Amino acid sequence: MRLCFNTMQVALLQNTENLSIEQDFPTDLSLGKDTEVCINMGILASMQGFLLSTENYMQSEFNDYRIFIGGGHQGLLKQHIQHKNKPFANLVLEGMLAYVEQQATYSHSNK
Fold first, then answer.
1. Whole-number mean pLDDT of the chain?
2. I need a labelling partner for 37 at 20 to 30 A (CA). Which of 9, 24, 60, 69 fits?
3. Gene3D superfamilies from the xrefs (predicted)?
């Protein structure tokens, strides 16, 4: 999440003088009072728009689905999902654990 946000910031600011990268993530969309805040609001709006488009697509194609949001800053987006979702702060580690548990169960049942 943060990487995506930072990548967008750098892309928007790399050839712009006298602007700095805001370190604070916006938590809700609002009107910006300066260029840096407006850039961050635009990035957040873009990320929320992508999520909304994804959710609309999933609703049109599937009856039952889940949206998984990973990363340390998933809180920026999870509040904007209307459908059931499960936030993961440690998605890779939890996935690895689930795989190991599944393999252990499979190995035990085939003995």
1. 76
2. 69
3. 3.30.420.40
